[in-house]
Amino acid sequence: MSDRLAGQGSELLVNGGFEGPIGTPWYGTPNLRVEQVSEPRYSGSYAAKLTVNDGQDGELWQVVFPAPGAGTYELSAWAMGGDGVGSIQVIAEWYEAGDATGSFIRDYRLVYTGTANLLSGQVTIDGPAQSVRVRVWFGPMAGSSTATMFRDAVSLRLIGEPMPEPSPELTATPSPGQPVPSPTPTHYEPGSLVFNELLYDPGIAGCGTDCEWVELVNATVSPIDLEGWTLADNARSDPLPQATIPAGGVALIAATRMAVSSPTDGSFVLVVMPTGRIGNGLNNDGDRLVLTAPDGTVVAALSYGTDTPYSPAQPAVKAGWALERLPAVTGPFRPTS
Fold first, then answer.
1. Tell me, what DSSP letter sits at residue 314?
2. pTM higher than 0.85 for the full model?
3. Are 110 and 119 in contact (CB under 8 A)?
4. Which partner for 153 in 38, 78, 93, 209 could form a disulfide, CB atoms 3.0-4.6 Å apart?
């Protein structure tokens, strides 16, 4: 690992489009079969087809070497799920060590949401990074021994040094007629907000979709403003209304005001969807929830019932029952009456 890889500069990965033979500097887990295929692909002439047949997770990775020190990076990749695949992620881990060993400074994840598309996000690394491990990871859905996925256009680019915070007295005021620059969205790690409970089949006559709700918990030590966040099911994505969840606090995302009574004790923040539904209305047989931060990071995602992109899919429950984490935040989902 002592030699610097070709491609250092704006693009750090080698053969991220899989146009050349798939081998070193890409490495894979022993259970992984990797093939170069012409279809499906995102760009160029080829993509990579990854398959496991033992029911275990598979992973393809590459270690690259950025300029030492802090920097801002863009991670992107095209993904498409195949037979038996449960979940797919592309993960970048920044290390102080030059051989990508030991504890990493931080990681950044792109999470596949069930639709073939190009995933992308930016992250700033403040520590003295000497190496980066880029991991293409996927796992089979529950009960499946074989899983297949397709990858193309995997990229890690060093796009600049972090911008210093301007001193208040030095901040320039735009002249009249000049556009005001948009602030860079705050980055939130996966798990910053947690799906803690959801009611997708209220079992109330005349109040099905209208009475659905989802409980979010802020697992961080700072307040989180929901402005710019989106919540999606498997058919539709909608922006969340502006609301602030205090550190360690709870928000209840309700389809309509009929779903939940406003709290009188401040025990949670009630957020009512202006669309009158969550996603396209949560399907009782199976659906998903995907919570995305303003910078494009998928912070929380789950599947239930017959919808299986996020493995393991949570169990379907009977009408009038909810799915709830027990213990809260960290526990597995269980049906609760």
1. B
2. no
3. yes
4. 78
By residue count, the chain amounts to 337
SS3 52: strand
Q: Of all helices (H) and strands (E), which one includes residue 86?
A: strand 85-95
Domain ranges of the chain: 27-160, 193-336
Distance CA 244, CA 331 (A): 24
Backbone angles phi, psi at 211, to 5 degrees: -105, 15
Sequence letter at residue 294: P
Give buried/exposed letters for 126-152 (b at 16+ CB in 10 A, else e). eeebbbbbbbbbbbbbeebeebbbbbb
CATH (residue range 193-336)? 2.60.40
Return the sign of the alpha-carbon dihedral for residues 226, 229, 232, 236.
positive
Residues 259-293 have pLDDT tens digits of: 888 777 778 899 999 888 898 899 999 999 999 99
Q: Do 216 and 223 meet the contact criterion of CB atoms below 8 Å apart? A: no
Give me 120's structure tokens.
Answer: 């992308």
213: left (phi over 0), alpha (psi -120 to 50) or beta: beta
